[in-house]
Write a structure and sequence with these properties.
Blueprint: E1 19-22, E2 25-28, E3 34-35, E4 37-38, E5 41-42, H1 57-62, H2 65-84, H3 94-105
Antiparallel strand pairs: 1-2, 2-3, 4-5
Length: 117
């Protein structure tokens, strides 16, 4: 794992960003909580907070296959074309258009270290 990512993680218990790697796990330097690592993935869920609330009708709708297809085929490409504008060239859709938005709107060239999307 890139050490730059450690500054992006927050402890689920005390909310600080002072994390260090210990074996396959992440350990919070503030409270000592161990976040278990499994095959490169880390569990930041806090079991003390209990189960999440049941999904509402709106949440279930947003997770439906129909909305996912509409989003992938219509909403996202339209958003990319609108936001990217003329500067993204004629091929504004897809990865090239999204990269253009990220590069110019977020100033990727000016930043060092990893980015999370």
């Amino acid at each position: 794992m890139d050490p730059g990512f450690l500054t992006l993680f927050r402890c689920s218990h005390c909310r600080t960003s002072s994390m260090r790697r210990s074996g396959g796990n992440l350990v919070c330097d503030e409270c000592g909580r161990i976040h278990q690592g499994h095959d490169g993935f880390f569990d930041f869920l806090d079991p003390a907070r209990g189960e999440p609330t049941p999904a509402s009708l709106e949440q279930r709708l947003m997770e439906s296959e129909l909305v996912a297809r509409i989003y992938d085929r219509v909403w996202r490409p339209t958003f990319v074309r609108v936001v990217a504008g003329r500067g993204a060239s004629a091929a504004a859709g897809g990865f090239a258009g999204e990269f253009f938005i990220h590069k110019h709107a977020l100033g990727i060239d000016d930043r060092k270290g990893p980015l999370l999307d």
